[in-house]
Amino acid sequence: MIKSLNEYIDHTMLKPDARESDIRKLCAEAKKYHFYAVCVNSSYVSLANKELMGSGIKIASVVGFPLGAVHTDVKTKEAEVALKEGTDEIDMVIHIGALKDGRYEYVFNDIKAVTELAKKHNAIVKVILETCLLSDEEVVRACEISKEAEADFVKTSTGFSTSGATLHHVMLMKSIVKNDLKVKASGGIRDRKKAIEMIEAGASRIGASASIDICR
Q: Does 194 participate in catalysis according to the annotation?
């Protein structure tokens, strides 16, 4: 039996036009519905930290979002600032082009730089694969590299590309990482039925902006 659905949810606000009032509303909703975490852009970590102080709700900050193609040094600097300002989790986007080029050492080092930094702050790292842009073979390789780089989760999608989470990809990712890593399904999950399907397929966390509708 799965636990309460709200405990799986990263309540998410990543729109480019999000304002401080939107982040305050996001945090208030997270406290009301007891979501596991909020997920915000790195510039809003400090505000979310203030709004959620003492609530027990985690903060996840995206890094290299949404394209993943920035330099590794930029990702680590963004992660460093977010960690110092109070984030508990880092959701980083892989360098998708490097993966598709077969530059696996680069992809490994890119993830490893962030995971090593996060461990110093007792934070977890979720690696966003953007599965809609990858073949199954590339998804498998990305999961293997994420394990090697000591990430904590692999995550399906940014929600900003051609499509979001699918049951196929969640099951495929889970079959590779098994119990070594967890799987986060995000992108296009807007109702209770789909959220439960993702959990039953192997997802340990759900990223959604329609969190309240899902729980209702």
A: no
